[in-house]
Design a protein that fits this description.
The protein is an alpha/beta fold and 317 residues long. The chain is built from 11 helices and 12 strands. The protein has a 5-stranded parallel beta sheet. α4 links the parallel β4 and β5 (129-132). α1 runs antiparallel to α2 (68-85), α4 (111-122) crosses α5 (136-145) and α6 (192-203) runs parallel beside α11. The longest helix has 19 residues, at 45-63. The chain is elongated, with a radius of gyration of 25 Å. The protein starts with a strand and ends in a 6-residue tail after the last helix. The relative contact order is 0.09.
Length: 317
């Protein structure tokens, strides 16, 4: 027995039971007919699409072309697809079009929405699927729901979920073998949540780019960034992502010491007059060092995407 419950507009909920036995189907029409004079609201468009899909599936069972078990799986997949369409329109081809895949911004989404979107993306992805801005509480609920087409890993510091899809094509070369490096630096330990978002985004976006982390090298102790100069100036480095809060001075310092582009990421770290990162943002925008580009406050993902495109411009995947 296959029971399909469809949620429609308010005041209308239809539950349909189809019995599939020996290749025959029994039951009445899926939806009651509504006319213009009826006070009962019309079924939502997604339900109409589901009705059409369900009818096609049941016809295949009646003809004996698929089994009852296959039909049950297909019905469940169609139901999930229509549910997803009610809140998300996934851009599966963004990676091919722009060179950088679509990621999921988790803040503001429910655990159910996040799991549904990740599962859909993982079912067609060739590489890792990333989700940003995921609190530990949200992660616990997403983990309980689970996905069918991949394996999820939660990174607490970065507040990210990384999904390795079942369809992922393994690369023969490891990042350590790459000749192209992106450095991710941050001023202080409290900037790590942004720096790690950037580092993990880069790490899971291409096997052709190696990520070098240089953390806690803020301007209050300039000797620390000076000691890091051999890594910053290494011939393999193609771009540097610098995350800083407070006075936001570190990107300007780094920009005055290196030849490659610097992507500055202001963070919301700082006391009152830091204004949640606005102080650092303004400082970076007003940088006197040439070759410093600035992204939004706490946007480690955006900084990583820009650095990726700079570094990957002449690198084939």
């Amino acid at each position: 027995m296959i029971k399909v419950s469809l949620t429609c507009t308010a005041r209308q909920c239809i539950s349909v039971t189809r019995i599939i036995k020996g290749g025959a189907t029994f039951g009445q029409d899926l939806f009651a007919k509504n006319n213009a004079s009826s006070r009962v609201p019309r079924c939502h468009l997604s339900c109409q699409r589901f009705s059409s899909s369900l009818s096609s599936i049941l016809q295949q069972v009646e003809k004996g072309s698929i089994s009852a078990s296959d039909a049950e799986n297909m019905i469940e997949e169609n139901k999930n697809s229509d549910s997803l369409a009610s809140f998300s329109n996934i851009d599966h081809n963004r990676g091919d079009r722009t060179g950088f895949p679509e990621a999921v911004f988790g803040e503001g989404k429910t655990p159910t929405q996040i799991a549904s979107i990740l599962d859909s993306m993982a079912s067609r992805a060739k590489g890792y699927v990333l989700t940003t801005r995921i609190s530990n509480d949200i992660w616990k609920n997403v983990e309980k729901i689970g996905i069918q087409h991949g394996e999820m890993t939660y990174h607490e510091t970065a507040r990210m979920i990384v999904v390795k899809p079942d369809t992922m094509i393994e690369q023969s070369r490891s990042p350590e073998e790459s000749e192209h490096t992106v450095v991710v630096a941050c001023a202080g330990t409290t900037d790590l949540f942004v720096a790690e978002e950037a580092a993990l985004t880069l790490q899971h976006s291409s096997r052709n780019i190696r990520v070098e982390r240089i953390y806690d090298v803020g301007v209050a102790g300039l000797h620390r960034i000076v000691h890091a100069l051999p890594k910053l100036r290494h011939p393999s480095v193609r771009a540097i992502v610098v995350c800083a809060g407070m006075d936001g001075a570190l990107p300007s310092v780094v920009g005055g010491l290196v030849k490659v582009p610097v992507v500055a990421v202001p963070t919301s770290v700082g006391y009152g007059a830091a204004l949640g990162g606005i102080g650092a943002l303004l400082s970076m925008i007003n940088s006197c060092s040439p070759g410093v580009g600035v992204v939004n406050i706490n946007n480690g993902f955006g900084g990583a995407a820009l650095a990726f495109k700079i570094a990957n411009n002449n690198v084939s995947d």
